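REQUEST ID: PR-0412
SUBMITTED BY: lab tech R.K.
PRIORITY: routine
TASK: structure prediction, single protein chain
INPUT:
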Amino acid sequence: MAKKILVTAFEPFGGRTENPTLRVLETLRAPRGARLFKARLPVKGKAAGKKIESLLSRLEPDLLLSLGLAAGEAAIRVERFGLNIADYGIKDNAGWNPQGEKLDPAGPAAYAVTVDPSKLAAACRRAGAPAYVSNHAGGYVCNTLMYRAMRAIDKTGLRTRYAFIHIPVSTEMALKEKPGRNISPSLSLALMAAAVQSAIKEAAK
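STATUS: complete
OUTPUT:
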């Protein structure tokens, strides 16, 4: 039976009109012997958590890979832990702005991803993109998604393996930023797409 792989990306947020994770998602192809499912998620902590729980329940994927935007980064960042904390700093797209709240009072302090992040970072580098392992995804919606996904996998007993990759602003987006301001570090969409494709191939082994 073909492996089922689910990849998620986020809608635009933070005043931007696009999110490069969606553009990368469009390009992805299923590795040989696998079926690829794609999903767009809202940058709304509560809604994103509910949607990922629904997707996991419906698809029961063998692998779940989430993509997020880390504006200001100059490299691809592969995350290691999802933390039981919501500490946003800015409002999400629903206006929610929690300050140090637990995502699940009954849950553990953190979950470790179940796909080796060092191997995924190496796969991204083989594709020509700078990449490194980060210990956590911050306190915003990306971390909320990570924790909610792994909590759902834990509670339901699914055998789904999980990984999270943060990508920078795309060069195409950076070129649209107004001159005279600090331009965001960036990588081209083509390079990031190749890197994520390489990571999926590695994760699907």
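NOTES: The helical segments are 20-27, 45-59, 117-126, 141-156, 171-174, 189-203.
REVIEWED BY: pending
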